[in-house]
Specification:
Number of strands: 3
Strand content: 15-25%
Number of domains: 1
Shape: globular
Oligomer: single chain
Bound molecules: zinc ion
Length: 80
């Protein structure tokens, strides 16, 4: 029997990991970037709330890709 948490993770309703990213514009402000099992990232900043690409997701996406972790395309293309 799986726990409800595992169920949520498998259905990408709950992030596998959460990362703290320092805001560039506001000192001391931390944005939470969440990594989901389908490779998508979400961020709690204003852009992220609208599912738009943002610096925080880009940063985490690049870090994950360096580790060989799959992330959905569209975020990393920001850097090009
Ligand atoms: Zn963001």
């Amino acid at each position: 029997m799986k726990s409800s948490k595992e169920f949520l993770m498998e259905n990408n309703l709950l992030p596998l990991k959460t990362y703290d990213v320092q805001s560039r514009s506001e000192k001391g402000l931390i944005h939470k970037v969440e990594y989901f099992g389908d490779g998508s990232l979400s961020c709690d900043c204003i852009a992220g709330c609208f599912k738009a690409p943002c610096y925080h997701k880009k940063l985490i996406s690049e870090a994950l890709q360096k580790q060989g972790v799959y992330t959905k395309s569209g975020i990393s293309s920001l850097s090009k």
